[in-house]
Amino acid sequence: AFVALRSAAPMQGEIAMNTLTKLALGVMGRLHPLPAQGDAVPKIVLPAPEKSGGMPLMEAIAQRRSGRDFARMELPLPLLSALLWAADGVNRPDGGRTAPSAINAQEIDVYVALPSGAYRYDAAANALLLVAGTDVRRVTGYQDFVDEAPLDLVFVADHSRMKLIPAASREGFAFAAAGAICQNVYLF
Q: Is the distance from CB of 84 to CB of 98 less than 8 angstroms?
């Protein structure tokens, strides 16, 4: 699963691709990352997330809508920090998370695809750790708007962390955990 914050126009020199073109290129193995834009620093230390405020839950649910008009601007680090903490951050001294996971397997890693590179969210350190110094946004989903989104969130399940869950059930449990994280993002 992924969440994409969309921007409106293709990068200079790039041809905008529609969903069907991206799907076809992906199936053919011809959809590739782009060079990073800006510096791909090894670690981005995030500020402490703001954990109070916001709108009441029922009001947020009542106002929830899907749209295709997204800001092109980069998210400020305090907002990105709060978003990632809400998604699957540490909210208890014992390392417990904001999203549930069956038998606390914590099998989902949240990755952030930025123009400057791809990062893994380290919830314990509240930091982003560089995993790829390329712009992978265009290969994080087949919808056309992910190519230019200020960021994409990508949820990856590591089934090796699910040893106490029967192998036949791991995929379903991982889907449920990713859904809980995604729900937290949407509620945020």
A: no
